[in-house]
Amino acid sequence: MLKYLKMITEENWRWDIVYACINILCLTFVIAFVVVQLVSLLRKDDIKKRSMAIMQPERKFIPQARMTDKQIGDVIESVLNYRKVFSIKKVPYHRLRLHDDEALLRSQLFYENMKMRRCVQEFSPRPVPSKLIQNIIKSAGTAPSAGNLQPWMFCVVSSHELKAEIRKIVEEEERNTYSKKMGADWVLDIAELKIIWSKPYLTDAPHLIVVMKQIHLINDSNELTSTYYNQISIGIAVGILIAALQDAGLATSITYPLYGGEKIRKYLKRPLHEEVFLLVPVGFPAKNATVPDLKRKSAEEIIRCYS
Amino acid sequence: MLKYLKMITEENWRWDIVYACINILCLTFVIAFVVVQLVSLLRKDDIKKRSMAIMQPERKFIPQARMTDKQIGDVIESVLNYRKVFSIKKVPYHRLRLHDDEALLRSQLFYENMKMRRCVQEFSPRPVPSKLIQNIIKSAGTAPSAGNLQPWMFCVVSSHELKAEIRKIVEEEERNTYSKKMGADWVLDIAELKIIWSKPYLTDAPHLIVVMKQIHLINDSNELTSTYYNQISIGIAVGILIAALQDAGLATSITYPLYGGEKIRKYLKRPLHEEVFLLVPVGFPAKNATVPDLKRKSAEEIIRCYS
Q1: Is the model's pLDDT at B66 over the cut of 50?
Q2: Does the structure show a pLDDT above 60 at B71?
Q3: Closest CA in chain A for residue B210
Q4: CB-CB under 8 Å, A19 with B71
Q5: Strand-strand pairing, A207-214 and A152-157
Q6: ipTM higher than 0.85?
Q7: Taking 80 as the threshold, does the pLDDT of residue B301 lie above it?
Q8: Which residues contact B13 (CB under 8 A, 6 or more apart)?
Q9: How many inter-chain contacts (A to B, CB under 8 Å) are there?
Q10: Degrees (nearest 5) of the Cα angle B272, B275, B277?
Q11: Which residue of A has its CA nearest to B126?
Q12: Contact status of A182 with chain B (Cβ, < 8 Å)
Protein backbone atom coordinates (compact mmCIF):
# COMPACT_ATOMS: atom_id res chain seq x y z
CA MET A 1 0.00 0.00 0.00
CA LEU A 2 2.75 2.44 0.99
CA LYS A 3 4.50 1.54 -2.19
CA TYR A 4 1.45 2.64 -4.20
CA LEU A 5 0.96 5.86 -2.22
CA LYS A 6 4.56 6.74 -2.94
CA MET A 7 4.04 5.94 -6.60
CA ILE A 8 1.04 8.23 -6.79
CA THR A 9 3.30 11.17 -6.06
CA GLU A 10 5.51 10.22 -8.98
CA GLU A 11 4.99 11.20 -12.60
CA ASN A 12 3.28 7.95 -13.82
CA TRP A 13 0.58 8.21 -11.09
CA ARG A 14 -2.52 7.46 -13.20
CA TRP A 15 -1.65 3.87 -14.03
CA ASP A 16 -0.54 3.25 -10.49
CA ILE A 17 -3.87 4.36 -9.11
CA VAL A 18 -5.57 1.90 -11.44
CA TYR A 19 -3.20 -0.84 -10.31
CA ALA A 20 -3.71 0.04 -6.67
CA CYS A 21 -7.49 -0.05 -7.10
CA ILE A 22 -7.28 -3.44 -8.80
CA ASN A 23 -5.08 -4.71 -5.98
CA ILE A 24 -7.46 -3.48 -3.29
CA LEU A 25 -10.39 -5.06 -5.16
CA CYS A 26 -8.47 -8.30 -5.47
CA LEU A 27 -7.64 -8.26 -1.79
CA THR A 28 -11.31 -7.75 -0.89
CA PHE A 29 -12.28 -10.67 -3.10
CA VAL A 30 -9.57 -12.85 -1.63
CA ILE A 31 -10.72 -12.06 1.92
CA ALA A 32 -14.37 -12.74 0.96
CA PHE A 33 -13.31 -15.96 -0.75
CA VAL A 34 -11.29 -17.16 2.24
CA VAL A 35 -14.13 -16.29 4.65
CA VAL A 36 -16.73 -18.07 2.48
CA GLN A 37 -14.51 -21.12 2.10
CA LEU A 38 -13.73 -21.22 5.83
CA VAL A 39 -17.41 -20.95 6.74
CA SER A 40 -18.37 -23.73 4.33
CA LEU A 41 -15.44 -25.84 5.59
CA LEU A 42 -16.58 -25.40 9.21
CA ARG A 43 -20.13 -26.27 8.21
CA LYS A 44 -18.99 -29.41 6.44
CA ASP A 45 -17.02 -30.38 9.52
CA ASP A 46 -20.14 -29.87 11.59
CA ILE A 47 -22.22 -32.08 9.29
CA LYS A 48 -19.47 -34.68 9.28
CA LYS A 49 -19.28 -34.64 13.06
CA ARG A 50 -23.03 -35.07 13.30
CA SER A 51 -23.19 -37.96 10.89
CA MET A 52 -20.17 -39.55 12.52
CA ALA A 53 -21.88 -39.27 15.90
CA ILE A 54 -20.67 -42.20 17.90
CA MET A 55 -21.97 -43.40 21.24
CA GLN A 56 -18.83 -45.09 22.46
CA PRO A 57 -15.37 -43.81 21.57
CA GLU A 58 -13.98 -47.22 20.65
CA ARG A 59 -16.47 -47.59 17.78
CA LYS A 60 -14.99 -46.88 14.38
CA PHE A 61 -17.11 -45.47 11.60
CA ILE A 62 -16.62 -46.99 8.17
CA PRO A 63 -17.99 -44.66 5.52
CA GLN A 64 -19.37 -46.66 2.63
CA ALA A 65 -17.92 -44.02 0.31
CA ARG A 66 -14.49 -45.45 0.93
CA MET A 67 -15.55 -48.35 -1.24
CA THR A 68 -16.57 -46.20 -4.17
CA ASP A 69 -14.53 -45.18 -7.17
CA LYS A 70 -11.96 -47.86 -6.57
CA GLN A 71 -10.78 -50.54 -8.91
CA ILE A 72 -11.93 -53.96 -7.79
CA GLY A 73 -8.53 -55.44 -8.56
CA ASP A 74 -6.97 -53.11 -5.99
CA VAL A 75 -9.34 -53.64 -3.11
CA ILE A 76 -9.84 -57.16 -1.97
CA GLU A 77 -12.84 -56.24 0.23
CA SER A 78 -14.79 -55.14 -2.84
CA VAL A 79 -14.27 -58.51 -4.42
CA LEU A 80 -15.26 -60.26 -1.22
CA ASN A 81 -18.38 -58.11 -0.91
CA TYR A 82 -19.17 -58.75 -4.52
CA ARG A 83 -18.87 -62.50 -4.02
CA LYS A 84 -21.12 -62.28 -0.99
CA VAL A 85 -23.96 -61.13 -3.24
CA PHE A 86 -23.94 -64.51 -4.94
CA SER A 87 -23.27 -66.59 -1.89
CA ILE A 88 -26.70 -65.77 -0.36
CA LYS A 89 -28.55 -69.07 -0.10
CA LYS A 90 -31.90 -69.22 -1.87
CA VAL A 91 -34.82 -70.92 -0.13
CA PRO A 92 -38.29 -71.82 -1.42
CA TYR A 93 -40.83 -69.03 -1.03
CA HIS A 94 -43.80 -70.03 1.12
CA ARG A 95 -46.75 -68.43 -0.53
CA LEU A 96 -50.44 -67.95 0.07
CA ARG A 97 -52.30 -69.97 -2.55
CA LEU A 98 -55.58 -68.19 -3.16
CA HIS A 99 -58.20 -68.57 -5.84
CA ASP A 100 -58.93 -65.36 -7.77
CA ASP A 101 -62.33 -65.00 -6.09
CA GLU A 102 -60.81 -65.50 -2.67
CA ALA A 103 -58.06 -62.97 -3.37
CA LEU A 104 -60.70 -60.48 -4.54
CA LEU A 105 -62.83 -61.02 -1.44
CA ARG A 106 -59.81 -60.61 0.84
CA SER A 107 -58.68 -57.43 -0.93
CA GLN A 108 -62.20 -56.01 -0.63
CA LEU A 109 -62.36 -56.82 3.11
CA PHE A 110 -58.87 -55.39 3.66
CA TYR A 111 -59.88 -52.17 1.94
CA GLU A 112 -63.17 -51.92 3.88
CA ASN A 113 -61.22 -52.33 7.11
CA MET A 114 -58.54 -49.78 6.19
CA LYS A 115 -61.21 -47.36 4.95
CA MET A 116 -62.59 -47.20 8.50
CA ARG A 117 -59.23 -46.01 9.81
CA ARG A 118 -59.06 -42.36 10.83
CA CYS A 119 -56.67 -40.34 12.91
CA VAL A 120 -58.32 -40.63 16.32
CA GLN A 121 -57.37 -38.26 19.12
CA GLU A 122 -59.85 -39.45 21.74
CA PHE A 123 -58.63 -42.57 23.48
CA SER A 124 -60.32 -44.94 25.91
CA PRO A 125 -58.46 -45.65 29.18
CA ARG A 126 -59.08 -49.35 28.47
CA PRO A 127 -55.69 -51.07 28.80
CA VAL A 128 -54.09 -52.63 25.74
CA PRO A 129 -52.64 -56.14 26.22
CA SER A 130 -48.86 -55.97 25.81
CA LYS A 131 -49.00 -59.04 23.56
CA LEU A 132 -51.18 -57.01 21.17
CA ILE A 133 -48.59 -54.20 21.02
CA GLN A 134 -45.88 -56.78 20.46
CA ASN A 135 -47.72 -58.48 17.57
CA ILE A 136 -48.31 -55.11 15.94
CA ILE A 137 -44.67 -54.05 16.16
CA LYS A 138 -43.56 -57.49 14.97
CA SER A 139 -45.80 -56.97 11.93
CA ALA A 140 -44.13 -53.60 11.28
CA GLY A 141 -40.78 -55.38 11.53
CA THR A 142 -41.67 -57.51 8.50
CA ALA A 143 -41.39 -54.45 6.26
CA PRO A 144 -38.93 -54.64 3.38
CA SER A 145 -35.84 -52.46 3.77
CA ALA A 146 -32.90 -51.52 1.57
CA GLY A 147 -30.23 -54.22 1.93
CA ASN A 148 -32.42 -55.94 4.58
CA LEU A 149 -30.85 -53.57 7.13
CA GLN A 150 -34.15 -53.08 9.05
CA PRO A 151 -33.11 -49.62 10.29
CA TRP A 152 -35.81 -49.24 12.97
CA MET A 153 -36.41 -49.35 16.70
CA PHE A 154 -39.80 -49.05 18.36
CA CYS A 155 -39.82 -47.53 21.85
CA VAL A 156 -43.06 -48.31 23.68
CA VAL A 157 -43.59 -45.63 26.33
CA SER A 158 -46.26 -46.70 28.83
CA SER A 159 -45.46 -44.79 32.03
CA HIS A 160 -47.59 -41.67 32.45
CA GLU A 161 -44.61 -39.65 33.66
CA LEU A 162 -42.54 -40.41 30.56
CA LYS A 163 -45.49 -39.77 28.23
CA ALA A 164 -46.12 -36.43 29.96
CA GLU A 165 -42.50 -35.37 29.45
CA ILE A 166 -42.63 -36.22 25.73
CA ARG A 167 -45.96 -34.42 25.41
CA LYS A 168 -44.38 -31.34 27.02
CA ILE A 169 -41.51 -31.39 24.51
CA VAL A 170 -43.87 -31.75 21.55
CA GLU A 171 -46.30 -29.07 22.77
CA GLU A 172 -43.44 -26.65 23.33
CA GLU A 173 -42.31 -27.23 19.75
CA GLU A 174 -45.86 -26.95 18.40
CA ARG A 175 -46.47 -23.71 20.26
CA ASN A 176 -43.24 -22.22 18.96
CA THR A 177 -44.07 -23.25 15.42
CA TYR A 178 -47.64 -22.01 15.57
CA SER A 179 -46.83 -18.69 17.19
CA LYS A 180 -44.12 -18.15 14.58
CA LYS A 181 -46.26 -19.26 11.68
CA MET A 182 -49.58 -17.85 12.71
CA GLY A 183 -47.99 -14.74 14.21
CA ALA A 184 -49.19 -12.74 17.20
CA ASP A 185 -51.14 -15.28 19.20
CA TRP A 186 -52.20 -12.42 21.52
CA VAL A 187 -54.54 -11.30 18.74
CA LEU A 188 -56.52 -14.46 19.21
CA ASP A 189 -58.03 -16.12 22.19
CA ILE A 190 -55.25 -18.10 23.88
CA ALA A 191 -57.75 -20.66 25.09
CA GLU A 192 -58.83 -21.30 21.51
CA LEU A 193 -55.30 -21.45 20.13
CA LYS A 194 -54.48 -24.03 22.75
CA ILE A 195 -56.63 -26.48 20.83
CA ILE A 196 -54.08 -26.45 18.01
CA TRP A 197 -50.84 -27.02 19.83
CA SER A 198 -52.25 -28.98 22.73
CA LYS A 199 -51.71 -32.75 22.33
CA PRO A 200 -53.65 -34.38 25.19
CA TYR A 201 -53.87 -37.64 23.24
CA LEU A 202 -50.11 -38.16 23.70
CA THR A 203 -50.78 -38.84 27.39
CA ASP A 204 -54.38 -40.11 27.09
CA ALA A 205 -53.36 -43.09 24.96
CA PRO A 206 -52.18 -46.02 27.12
CA HIS A 207 -49.04 -46.42 25.02
CA LEU A 208 -46.92 -44.08 22.96
CA ILE A 209 -44.72 -45.75 20.37
CA VAL A 210 -41.72 -43.58 19.54
CA VAL A 211 -40.51 -44.82 16.16
CA MET A 212 -36.74 -44.41 15.84
CA LYS A 213 -34.96 -44.35 12.49
CA GLN A 214 -31.45 -45.78 12.54
CA ILE A 215 -29.15 -43.60 10.47
CA HIS A 216 -26.27 -45.99 11.13
CA LEU A 217 -26.08 -49.56 12.35
CA ILE A 218 -23.50 -51.21 14.57
CA ASN A 219 -21.89 -54.30 13.09
CA ASP A 220 -20.41 -57.34 14.85
CA SER A 221 -17.03 -55.59 15.17
CA ASN A 222 -18.72 -52.73 17.09
CA GLU A 223 -18.30 -50.33 14.14
CA LEU A 224 -20.90 -47.95 12.74
CA THR A 225 -21.98 -48.63 9.16
CA SER A 226 -24.31 -46.66 6.86
CA THR A 227 -27.94 -47.49 6.16
CA TYR A 228 -29.48 -46.69 2.78
CA TYR A 229 -32.89 -45.22 1.99
CA ASN A 230 -33.69 -45.47 5.71
CA GLN A 231 -36.41 -42.80 5.39
CA ILE A 232 -38.27 -44.88 2.78
CA SER A 233 -37.77 -48.18 4.63
CA ILE A 234 -39.07 -46.87 7.93
CA GLY A 235 -42.00 -45.06 6.28
CA ILE A 236 -43.08 -48.41 4.85
CA ALA A 237 -42.66 -50.07 8.28
CA VAL A 238 -44.91 -47.41 9.86
CA GLY A 239 -47.47 -48.04 7.09
CA ILE A 240 -47.61 -51.73 8.03
CA LEU A 241 -47.74 -50.74 11.73
CA ILE A 242 -50.79 -48.56 11.04
CA ALA A 243 -52.47 -51.33 9.02
CA ALA A 244 -51.83 -53.79 11.89
CA LEU A 245 -53.23 -51.33 14.46
CA GLN A 246 -56.37 -50.83 12.43
CA ASP A 247 -56.81 -54.57 11.88
CA ALA A 248 -56.71 -55.14 15.65
CA GLY A 249 -59.31 -52.45 16.35
CA LEU A 250 -56.78 -50.04 17.86
CA ALA A 251 -56.57 -46.35 17.07
CA THR A 252 -53.76 -43.86 16.53
CA SER A 253 -53.12 -40.31 15.45
CA ILE A 254 -49.54 -40.18 14.25
CA THR A 255 -47.64 -37.07 15.30
CA TYR A 256 -44.54 -35.51 13.84
CA PRO A 257 -42.24 -34.24 16.61
CA LEU A 258 -41.14 -31.16 14.59
CA TYR A 259 -37.75 -30.13 16.01
CA GLY A 260 -38.40 -31.85 19.35
CA GLY A 261 -37.03 -35.18 18.14
CA GLU A 262 -33.54 -34.65 19.46
CA LYS A 263 -34.83 -33.84 22.97
CA ILE A 264 -37.04 -36.94 22.94
CA ARG A 265 -34.13 -39.12 21.79
CA LYS A 266 -32.00 -37.88 24.68
CA TYR A 267 -34.90 -38.28 27.09
CA LEU A 268 -35.36 -41.92 26.08
CA LYS A 269 -31.58 -42.44 26.24
CA ARG A 270 -31.46 -43.68 22.66
CA PRO A 271 -28.03 -43.68 20.96
CA LEU A 272 -26.85 -40.89 18.67
CA HIS A 273 -27.18 -43.01 15.54
CA GLU A 274 -30.96 -43.08 15.99
CA GLU A 275 -33.41 -40.29 15.16
CA VAL A 276 -37.06 -39.85 16.20
CA PHE A 277 -39.14 -40.51 13.07
CA LEU A 278 -42.74 -40.33 14.32
CA LEU A 279 -44.80 -40.58 17.51
CA VAL A 280 -47.56 -43.18 17.38
CA PRO A 281 -49.97 -43.02 20.34
CA VAL A 282 -51.79 -46.35 20.64
CA GLY A 283 -55.00 -47.31 22.40
CA PHE A 284 -58.61 -48.29 21.93
CA PRO A 285 -60.71 -45.38 20.67
CA ALA A 286 -63.01 -43.64 23.17
CA LYS A 287 -66.63 -44.81 23.08
CA ASN A 288 -68.00 -41.64 21.52
CA ALA A 289 -64.85 -40.55 19.69
CA THR A 290 -65.33 -38.06 16.87
CA VAL A 291 -63.09 -37.35 13.89
CA PRO A 292 -62.87 -34.37 11.50
CA ASP A 293 -65.22 -34.67 8.54
CA LEU A 294 -62.47 -35.03 5.91
CA LYS A 295 -62.77 -36.74 2.55
CA ARG A 296 -60.38 -39.15 0.87
CA LYS A 297 -59.56 -38.82 -2.82
CA SER A 298 -61.48 -41.19 -5.08
CA ALA A 299 -59.85 -44.09 -6.92
CA GLU A 300 -60.03 -42.03 -10.13
CA GLU A 301 -57.99 -39.28 -8.50
CA ILE A 302 -55.13 -41.52 -7.41
CA ILE A 303 -54.92 -44.23 -10.12
CA ARG A 304 -53.70 -43.85 -13.72
CA CYS A 305 -53.66 -46.88 -16.00
CA TYR A 306 -51.11 -47.42 -18.77
CA SER A 307 -52.15 -50.46 -20.79
CA MET B 1 1.88 -7.76 -15.85
CA LEU B 2 4.03 -5.86 -18.32
CA LYS B 3 4.33 -3.14 -15.74
CA TYR B 4 5.83 -5.58 -13.27
CA LEU B 5 8.17 -7.13 -15.80
CA LYS B 6 9.44 -3.65 -16.57
CA MET B 7 9.84 -2.95 -12.87
CA ILE B 8 11.88 -6.06 -12.33
CA THR B 9 14.56 -4.60 -14.57
CA GLU B 10 14.70 -1.49 -12.40
CA GLU B 11 16.75 -1.01 -9.23
CA ASN B 12 14.07 -1.88 -6.60
CA TRP B 13 13.34 -5.21 -8.30
CA ARG B 14 13.11 -7.44 -5.21
CA TRP B 15 10.00 -5.86 -3.70
CA ASP B 16 8.37 -5.68 -7.09
CA ILE B 17 8.80 -9.41 -7.61
CA VAL B 18 7.08 -9.99 -4.27
CA TYR B 19 4.26 -7.62 -5.23
CA ALA B 20 3.91 -9.28 -8.61
CA CYS B 21 3.73 -12.70 -7.01
CA ILE B 22 1.07 -11.53 -4.55
CA ASN B 23 -0.91 -10.01 -7.39
CA ILE B 24 -0.76 -13.19 -9.45
CA LEU B 25 -1.81 -15.20 -6.41
CA CYS B 26 -4.66 -12.78 -5.73
CA LEU B 27 -5.79 -13.00 -9.35
CA THR B 28 -5.83 -16.80 -9.17
CA PHE B 29 -7.93 -16.66 -6.00
CA VAL B 30 -10.29 -14.14 -7.53
CA ILE B 31 -10.80 -16.33 -10.60
CA ALA B 32 -11.35 -19.41 -8.39
CA PHE B 33 -13.76 -17.43 -6.20
CA VAL B 34 -15.75 -16.14 -9.17
CA VAL B 35 -15.92 -19.61 -10.74
CA VAL B 36 -17.02 -21.25 -7.44
CA GLN B 37 -19.64 -18.56 -6.85
CA LEU B 38 -20.96 -18.78 -10.41
CA VAL B 39 -21.21 -22.58 -10.24
CA SER B 40 -23.07 -22.44 -6.92
CA LEU B 41 -25.32 -19.68 -8.30
CA LEU B 42 -26.18 -21.78 -11.37
CA ARG B 43 -26.87 -24.80 -9.16
CA LYS B 44 -29.18 -22.81 -6.91
CA ASP B 45 -31.03 -21.60 -9.98
CA ASP B 46 -31.37 -25.15 -11.16
CA ILE B 47 -32.79 -26.31 -7.80
CA LYS B 48 -35.14 -23.33 -7.71
CA LYS B 49 -36.35 -24.08 -11.23
CA ARG B 50 -36.97 -27.69 -10.35
CA SER B 51 -38.89 -26.97 -7.17
CA MET B 52 -40.91 -24.24 -8.88
CA ALA B 53 -41.60 -26.61 -11.75
CA ILE B 54 -44.94 -25.71 -13.23
CA MET B 55 -46.87 -27.66 -15.83
CA GLN B 56 -48.86 -24.80 -17.31
CA PRO B 57 -47.57 -21.26 -17.42
CA GLU B 58 -50.80 -19.73 -16.08
CA ARG B 59 -50.45 -21.61 -12.79
CA LYS B 60 -49.16 -19.48 -9.97
CA PHE B 61 -47.04 -20.97 -7.21
CA ILE B 62 -47.92 -19.87 -3.68
CA PRO B 63 -45.03 -20.64 -1.34
CA GLN B 64 -46.39 -21.44 2.11
CA ALA B 65 -43.46 -19.49 3.54
CA ARG B 66 -45.23 -16.29 2.56
CA MET B 67 -47.61 -16.96 5.43
CA THR B 68 -44.89 -17.31 8.00
CA ASP B 69 -43.42 -14.66 10.26
CA LYS B 70 -46.42 -12.40 9.80
CA GLN B 71 -48.66 -10.88 12.40
CA ILE B 72 -52.14 -12.31 12.27
CA GLY B 73 -53.67 -8.88 12.59
CA ASP B 74 -51.98 -7.86 9.33
CA VAL B 75 -52.93 -10.79 7.16
CA ILE B 76 -56.58 -11.58 6.85
CA GLU B 77 -55.88 -14.97 5.19
CA SER B 78 -54.06 -16.17 8.29
CA VAL B 79 -57.09 -15.40 10.39
CA LEU B 80 -59.36 -17.10 7.89
CA ASN B 81 -57.07 -20.14 7.79
CA TYR B 82 -56.95 -20.14 11.54
CA ARG B 83 -60.73 -20.09 11.75
CA LYS B 84 -60.94 -22.92 9.25
CA VAL B 85 -59.16 -25.19 11.73
CA PHE B 86 -62.12 -24.89 14.07
CA SER B 87 -64.83 -24.92 11.42
CA ILE B 88 -64.01 -28.53 10.41
CA LYS B 89 -67.12 -30.53 11.18
CA LYS B 90 -66.63 -33.39 13.57
CA VAL B 91 -68.39 -36.67 12.83
CA PRO B 92 -68.71 -39.82 14.94
CA TYR B 93 -65.88 -42.29 14.48
CA HIS B 94 -67.05 -45.68 13.25
CA ARG B 95 -64.92 -48.15 15.06
CA LEU B 96 -64.28 -51.87 15.14
CA ARG B 97 -65.56 -53.20 18.46
CA LEU B 98 -63.45 -56.21 19.30
CA HIS B 99 -63.08 -58.21 22.46
CA ASP B 100 -59.48 -58.38 23.75
CA ASP B 101 -59.18 -62.04 22.75
CA GLU B 102 -60.50 -61.31 19.30
CA ALA B 103 -58.09 -58.38 18.88
CA LEU B 104 -55.21 -60.62 19.97
CA LEU B 105 -56.20 -63.37 17.55
CA ARG B 106 -56.50 -60.88 14.69
CA SER B 107 -53.13 -59.30 15.49
CA GLN B 108 -51.53 -62.74 15.60
CA LEU B 109 -53.05 -63.72 12.23
CA PHE B 110 -52.05 -60.37 10.70
CA TYR B 111 -48.47 -60.88 11.86
CA GLU B 112 -48.36 -64.50 10.62
CA ASN B 113 -49.57 -63.29 7.23
CA MET B 114 -47.10 -60.39 7.00
CA LYS B 115 -44.28 -62.65 8.22
CA MET B 116 -44.71 -64.76 5.08
CA ARG B 117 -44.08 -61.71 2.90
CA ARG B 118 -40.73 -61.62 1.13
CA CYS B 119 -39.38 -59.62 -1.77
CA VAL B 120 -40.20 -61.96 -4.64
CA GLN B 121 -38.51 -61.56 -8.02
CA GLU B 122 -40.00 -64.58 -9.77
CA PHE B 123 -43.50 -63.88 -11.03
CA SER B 124 -46.15 -66.13 -12.52
CA PRO B 125 -47.63 -65.04 -15.85
CA ARG B 126 -51.08 -65.63 -14.28
CA PRO B 127 -53.09 -62.45 -14.92
CA VAL B 128 -54.14 -60.29 -11.97
CA PRO B 129 -57.78 -59.11 -11.98
CA SER B 130 -57.82 -55.33 -12.37
CA LYS B 131 -60.37 -55.10 -9.55
CA LEU B 132 -57.75 -56.65 -7.26
CA ILE B 133 -55.17 -54.01 -8.22
CA GLN B 134 -57.79 -51.33 -7.67
CA ASN B 135 -58.72 -52.56 -4.19
CA ILE B 136 -55.06 -52.67 -3.21
CA ILE B 137 -54.37 -49.13 -4.40
CA LYS B 138 -57.57 -47.91 -2.74
CA SER B 139 -56.28 -49.42 0.51
CA ALA B 140 -52.99 -47.52 0.09
CA GLY B 141 -55.07 -44.38 -0.45
CA THR B 142 -56.47 -44.69 3.09
CA ALA B 143 -53.03 -43.82 4.52
CA PRO B 144 -52.84 -40.82 6.81
CA SER B 145 -51.04 -37.79 5.37
CA ALA B 146 -49.92 -34.43 6.71
CA GLY B 147 -52.83 -32.01 6.39
CA ASN B 148 -54.87 -34.76 4.66
CA LEU B 149 -53.19 -33.68 1.40
CA GLN B 150 -52.84 -37.28 0.12
CA PRO B 151 -49.78 -36.42 -2.02
CA TRP B 152 -49.73 -39.60 -4.10
CA MET B 153 -50.53 -40.99 -7.55
CA PHE B 154 -50.32 -44.65 -8.52
CA CYS B 155 -49.52 -45.34 -12.18
CA VAL B 156 -50.40 -48.93 -13.12
CA VAL B 157 -48.26 -49.90 -16.12
CA SER B 158 -49.58 -53.09 -17.74
CA SER B 159 -48.42 -52.91 -21.38
CA HIS B 160 -45.30 -54.97 -22.01
CA GLU B 161 -43.80 -52.26 -24.19
CA LEU B 162 -44.07 -49.60 -21.46
CA LYS B 163 -42.76 -51.95 -18.78
CA ALA B 164 -39.78 -52.83 -21.01
CA GLU B 165 -38.94 -49.16 -21.48
CA ILE B 166 -39.03 -48.51 -17.72
CA ARG B 167 -36.92 -51.63 -17.12
CA LYS B 168 -34.38 -50.32 -19.63
CA ILE B 169 -34.14 -46.97 -17.79
CA VAL B 170 -33.72 -48.67 -14.40
CA GLU B 171 -31.14 -51.19 -15.64
CA GLU B 172 -29.13 -48.43 -17.27
CA GLU B 173 -29.07 -46.58 -13.93
CA GLU B 174 -28.23 -49.74 -11.98
CA ARG B 175 -25.41 -50.61 -14.34
CA ASN B 176 -23.93 -47.12 -14.07
CA THR B 177 -24.15 -47.20 -10.29
CA TYR B 178 -22.68 -50.65 -9.96
CA SER B 179 -19.83 -50.10 -12.38
CA LYS B 180 -18.99 -46.86 -10.54
CA LYS B 181 -19.31 -48.33 -7.08
CA MET B 182 -17.85 -51.74 -7.68
CA GLY B 183 -15.18 -50.37 -9.99
CA ALA B 184 -13.69 -52.05 -13.03
CA ASP B 185 -16.44 -54.45 -14.06
CA TRP B 186 -14.04 -55.83 -16.67
CA VAL B 187 -12.20 -57.51 -13.79
CA LEU B 188 -15.23 -59.65 -13.14
CA ASP B 189 -17.30 -61.86 -15.30
CA ILE B 190 -19.76 -59.61 -17.12
CA ALA B 191 -22.30 -62.39 -17.30
CA GLU B 192 -22.22 -62.74 -13.52
CA LEU B 193 -22.39 -59.01 -12.90
CA LYS B 194 -25.50 -58.92 -15.03
CA ILE B 195 -27.34 -60.72 -12.24
CA ILE B 196 -27.00 -57.64 -10.03
CA TRP B 197 -28.18 -54.91 -12.33
CA SER B 198 -30.57 -56.97 -14.41
CA LYS B 199 -34.22 -56.51 -13.36
CA PRO B 200 -36.22 -59.07 -15.37
CA TYR B 201 -39.01 -59.00 -12.79
CA LEU B 202 -39.91 -55.46 -13.87
CA THR B 203 -41.25 -56.91 -17.11
CA ASP B 204 -42.14 -60.41 -15.83
CA ALA B 205 -44.73 -59.06 -13.38
CA PRO B 206 -48.11 -58.48 -15.08
CA HIS B 207 -48.34 -54.98 -13.60
CA LEU B 208 -45.80 -52.40 -12.56
CA ILE B 209 -47.11 -49.76 -10.15
CA VAL B 210 -45.05 -46.57 -10.43
CA VAL B 211 -45.70 -44.71 -7.16
CA MET B 212 -45.52 -40.96 -7.70
CA LYS B 213 -44.93 -38.50 -4.86
CA GLN B 214 -46.63 -35.14 -5.32
CA ILE B 215 -44.24 -32.38 -4.25
CA HIS B 216 -46.94 -29.80 -4.94
CA LEU B 217 -50.68 -29.97 -5.38
CA ILE B 218 -52.93 -27.98 -7.70
CA ASN B 219 -55.77 -26.19 -5.94
CA ASP B 220 -59.18 -25.18 -7.29
CA SER B 221 -57.76 -21.90 -8.61
CA ASN B 222 -55.23 -23.87 -10.71
CA GLU B 223 -52.36 -22.77 -8.47
CA LEU B 224 -49.55 -24.94 -7.11
CA THR B 225 -49.43 -25.27 -3.32
CA SER B 226 -46.89 -27.00 -1.08
CA THR B 227 -47.28 -30.43 0.48
CA TYR B 228 -45.71 -31.19 3.86
CA TYR B 229 -43.84 -34.28 4.96
CA ASN B 230 -44.76 -35.87 1.62
CA GLN B 231 -41.88 -38.35 1.88
CA ILE B 232 -43.24 -39.70 5.18
CA SER B 233 -46.87 -39.72 4.03
CA ILE B 234 -46.16 -41.65 0.84
CA GLY B 235 -43.82 -44.07 2.63
CA ILE B 236 -46.72 -44.96 4.93
CA ALA B 237 -49.06 -45.34 1.92
CA VAL B 238 -46.61 -47.77 0.28
CA GLY B 239 -46.47 -49.69 3.58
CA ILE B 240 -50.24 -50.17 3.49
CA LEU B 241 -50.01 -51.05 -0.23
CA ILE B 242 -47.49 -53.80 0.58
CA ALA B 243 -49.67 -55.12 3.44
CA ALA B 244 -52.69 -55.19 1.08
CA LEU B 245 -50.69 -57.01 -1.63
CA GLN B 246 -49.55 -59.63 0.86
CA ASP B 247 -53.06 -60.07 2.26
CA ALA B 248 -54.37 -60.80 -1.25
CA GLY B 249 -51.66 -63.39 -1.98
CA LEU B 250 -49.83 -61.15 -4.45
CA ALA B 251 -46.06 -60.64 -4.51
CA THR B 252 -43.77 -57.69 -5.08
CA SER B 253 -40.13 -56.70 -4.93
CA ILE B 254 -40.05 -52.94 -4.53
CA THR B 255 -37.38 -51.20 -6.55
CA TYR B 256 -35.81 -47.80 -6.11
CA PRO B 257 -35.29 -46.10 -9.50
CA LEU B 258 -31.99 -44.46 -8.41
CA TYR B 259 -31.53 -41.44 -10.68
CA GLY B 260 -33.82 -42.86 -13.37
CA GLY B 261 -36.96 -41.39 -11.77
CA GLU B 262 -36.97 -38.24 -13.88
CA LYS B 263 -36.77 -40.22 -17.13
CA ILE B 264 -39.61 -42.49 -16.01
CA ARG B 265 -41.74 -39.48 -15.04
CA LYS B 266 -41.27 -37.97 -18.48
CA TYR B 267 -41.91 -41.32 -20.12
CA LEU B 268 -45.24 -41.70 -18.28
CA LYS B 269 -46.09 -38.06 -19.09
CA ARG B 270 -46.60 -37.22 -15.43
CA PRO B 271 -46.51 -33.52 -14.49
CA LEU B 272 -43.41 -31.79 -13.13
CA HIS B 273 -44.81 -31.50 -9.61
CA GLU B 274 -44.71 -35.29 -9.28
CA GLU B 275 -41.62 -37.41 -8.60
CA VAL B 276 -41.12 -41.17 -8.94
CA PHE B 277 -40.95 -42.57 -5.40
CA LEU B 278 -40.75 -46.33 -5.93
CA LEU B 279 -41.46 -49.02 -8.51
CA VAL B 280 -43.75 -51.79 -7.29
CA PRO B 281 -44.00 -54.78 -9.67
CA VAL B 282 -47.17 -56.73 -8.89
CA GLY B 283 -48.21 -60.27 -9.73
CA PHE B 284 -48.78 -63.74 -8.34
CA PRO B 285 -45.52 -65.41 -7.34
CA ALA B 286 -44.12 -68.12 -9.65
CA LYS B 287 -44.96 -71.68 -8.59
CA ASN B 288 -41.43 -72.57 -7.48
CA ALA B 289 -40.25 -69.08 -6.61
CA THR B 290 -37.22 -68.85 -4.34
CA VAL B 291 -36.11 -66.00 -2.08
CA PRO B 292 -32.75 -65.17 -0.45
CA ASP B 293 -32.27 -66.86 2.92
CA LEU B 294 -32.32 -63.65 4.97
CA LYS B 295 -33.30 -63.29 8.61
CA ARG B 296 -35.50 -60.68 10.25
CA LYS B 297 -34.52 -59.09 13.53
CA SER B 298 -36.22 -60.58 16.58
CA ALA B 299 -38.82 -58.70 18.64
CA GLU B 300 -36.15 -58.11 21.29
CA GLU B 301 -33.94 -56.37 18.75
CA ILE B 302 -36.58 -53.89 17.60
CA ILE B 303 -38.69 -53.20 20.73
CA ARG B 304 -37.72 -51.22 23.84
CA CYS B 305 -40.22 -50.82 26.65
CA TYR B 306 -40.41 -47.76 28.92
CA SER B 307 -42.87 -48.46 31.70
Answers
A1: no
A2: no
A3: A304
A4: no
A5: antiparallel
A6: no
A7: yes
A8: B7
A9: 410
A10: 170
A11: A100
A12: yes
